């Protein structure tokens, strides 16, 4: 024993083990644990440190050094590669798209994850629902990209998105039965938005022939009957529109026995450039304007009769390709956000929620003023993690965006790969500079997460 400050007694180092042993076996083990040499801990950490050095520290340092040399790596160019990166239009497009990703994707995923986590707390099959939402995380980003490339195919017979769009569109606007059909040459001229106007003028009592070409007889609408020519002796302006196939011994511009009328066509009477009457052809292709005033008229077939059917949207074109890829990423990551937020919700004291309800708070008020503030740290961690993930996005853009649209959907990770290893690339100095820029963009979010984890441990 030794005398300590203020007359207190203190056990000498040689006596500490004896005192610990006297207090029991647990105390003895604790004493020996405190005296574990530091070199032994370092020995266990050495394999991990070696791997971190080889696969993390060395690539980062080498990339920084390589970014200051030319494409061949033989000539030192300083910061020229960084200047070229910021002046290159492709890199600026990639930076803009990365900014769009950071502003939109993590926010939407966090909101969806929060909503699903809160709503599934009140249903019996919450586990099954969450498992289904989490399943996309089990698929690689490359495979998910292939799936969504098929979903957004432009052909409605192949792409699910356009098949749904065409179905909804056609439910409100019936498609034309005569796509690509036209008047036979010499019978009319094209005006306006594809409207066909007869070359001659007609008066009430005349008969107008409108021979159509450009489709097969088997493609006529159901119910089409044999075409007939309206008889004379009427004061109405009448006529017939039919599919003028002119097979074998048929006669062009004249109705033959085998030819059928074109039902459902919109026909207009035009006087002095203005439409004065509108009618529709019957099953045999005939039409009539009975109440026209005397004068000269032309007959017009509006272009809507011959419009091509709606085939959906060009989802993977330059204008929509980035939102499409973001939607794919949201589908993949919503399950991840929901799972983490649900774990945070499970840790909320139920007493606080019940107290808020007893005090008269509505479910919306409880959610906004109690639930969200209590899981605020979890939401922040999820959001920052998603930001880090978004900045490194590569596979989805590479797989989903077609070659013609890839430049519009470009992001920094893809630009780095294209410059370094893509066709026409090979400039690893510039590619390393872009990689360093990407690393510097990710670094603040990583440091924020690390500091937050440390504060939570304390």
UniProtKB/TrEMBL annotation:
CDD domains: TM_PBP2 (cd06261). Its main location: membrane. Residues 1-30 are annotated as: Disordered. It holds the Pfam family BPD_transp_1. GO terms for cellular component: extracellular region; plasma membrane. The keyword Secreted applies. Residues 95-449 form the ABC transmembrane type-1 domain. Signal peptide: none annotated. Belongs to the binding-protein-dependent transport system permease family. This is Carbohydrate ABC transporter membrane protein 1 (CUT1 family). It comes from Labedaea rhizosphaerae.
């Amino acid at each position: 024993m030794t005398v300590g400050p203020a007359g207190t007694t203190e056990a000498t180092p040689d006596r500490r083990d004896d005192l610990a042993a006297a207090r029991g076996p647990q105390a003895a083990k604790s004493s020996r644990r405190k005296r574990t040499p530091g070199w032994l801990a370092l020995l266990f950490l050495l394999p991990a440190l070696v791997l971190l050095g080889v696969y993390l520290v060395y690539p980062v340092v080498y990339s920084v050094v390589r970014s200051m040399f030319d494409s061949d790596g033989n000539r030192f160019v300083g910061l020229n590669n960084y200047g070229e990166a910021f002046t290159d239009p492709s890199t600026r497009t990639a930076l803009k798209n990365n900014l769009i990703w950071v502003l939109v994707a993590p926010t939407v995923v966090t909101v969806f994850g929060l909503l699903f986590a809160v709503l599934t707390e009140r249903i019996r099959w919450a586990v099954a629902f969450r498992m289904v939402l989490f399943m996309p995380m089990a698929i690689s980003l490359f495979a998910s990209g292939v799936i969504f490339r098929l979903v957004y195919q432009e052909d409605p017979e192949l792409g699910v998105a356009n098949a749904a769009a065409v179905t909804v569109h056609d439910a409100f606007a019936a498609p034309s039965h005569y796509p690509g059909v036209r008047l036979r040459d010499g019978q009319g001229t094209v005006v306006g938005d594809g409207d066909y106007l007869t070359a001659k003028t007609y008066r009430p009592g005349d008969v107008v022939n409108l021979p159509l070409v450009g489709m097969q007889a088997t493609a006529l609408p159901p119910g089409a009957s044999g075409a007939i020519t309206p008889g004379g002796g009427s004061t109405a302006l009448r006529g017939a529109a039919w599919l003028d196939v002119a097979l074998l011994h048929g006669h062009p511009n004249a109705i033959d026995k085998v030819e059928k009328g074109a039902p459902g066509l919109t026909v207009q009477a035009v006087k002095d450039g203005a439409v004065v009457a509108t009618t529709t052809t019957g099953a045999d292709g005939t039409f009539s304007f009975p109440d026209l005033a005397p004068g000269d008229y032309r007959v017009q077939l509006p272009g809507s009769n011959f419009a091509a059917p709606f085939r959906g949207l060009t989802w993977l074109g330059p204008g929509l390709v980035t939102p499409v890829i973001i939607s794919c990423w949201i589908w993949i990551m919503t399950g991840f956000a929901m799972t983490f937020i649900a774990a945070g919700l499970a840790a909320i004291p139920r007493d606080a929620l019940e107290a808020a309800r007893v005090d008269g708070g509505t479910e919306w008020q409880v959610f906004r003023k109690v639930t969200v503030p209590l899981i605020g740290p979890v939401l922040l961690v999820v959001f920052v993690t998603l930001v880090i993930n978004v900045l490194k996005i590569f596979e989805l853009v590479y797989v989903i965006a077609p070659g013609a649209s890839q430049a519009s959907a470009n992001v920094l990770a893809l630009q780095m790969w294209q410059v370094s290893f893509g066709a026409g690339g090979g400039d690893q100095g510039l590619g390393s500079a872009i990689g360093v820029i990407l690393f510097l963009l990710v670094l603040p979010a990583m440091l924020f997460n690390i500091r937050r984890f440390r504060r939570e441990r304390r």
